[in-house]
Amino acid sequence: MKKQSIKLMCVAGVFTALVFVFTAYLHIPSYTGYVHIGDGLIYLAACLLPTPYAVFVGAGGAFLADCLTGYAIWAPGSVIIKTAVALLFSSKGKKIINKRNSLMLIPACAITVGGYYLYESIITANFIAPVQGILGNITQSVLSAVLFVAVGFAFDKLEVKQKLI
Fold it and tell me: Which domain covers residue 55, as residue numbers?
């Protein structure tokens, strides 16, 4: 196994753990579950890591958070939604915060809001009740975007991408 592969696996493992912690434990309870900023770490991981590793971070971190906090019913939906979100961002380029990655915050929000609305509609067989979760998912996406931009700018200033990967 190459040294670079081991390094990428380690970085992916750390990001997966961070997504889990920021999702499962650093969240705000709401009437539909909870609002968290773990997605911001998925965006960061997707900007730092090659696609397969970023997908693992998103799907794995969300899966662990749902299964280990009593929300296992959400795990299949979260795996699909967080995989799709991770695929939006690009690790190509020298900067994390660039025009492309910044613009991807909009479809990331749309996929999160639409994905969870659709998933809840399917598991409850009700297309009206899931509407109440839309505001929480928008809030989650906006707060995650703020985290992504703040940490991304700091990482770019410190040249973390060039040093880490």
Answer: 3-164
Q: What pTM does this model have?
A: 0.95
Look at the chain and report how many structural domains it folds into.
1
Task: DSSP letter for 130, please.
Answer: G
User: Taking a C-beta distance cutoff of 8 angstroms, is the pair 144, 37 a contact?
Assistant: yes
Give the CATH number of the domain where residue 71 resides.
Answer: 1.10.1760.20
* Distance in angstroms between the alpha carbons of the first and the last residue of the chain: 16
**pLDDT tens for each residue of 42-83:** 999 999 999 999 999 999 999 999 999 999 999 999 999 999
Determine if residue 93 is left, alpha or beta; phi over 0 gives left, psi from -120 to 50 gives alpha, anything else beta.
left
pLDDT tens profile 1-15: 688 899 999 999 999
Q: How many Å apart are CA 77 and CA 118, to the nearest integer?
A: 9
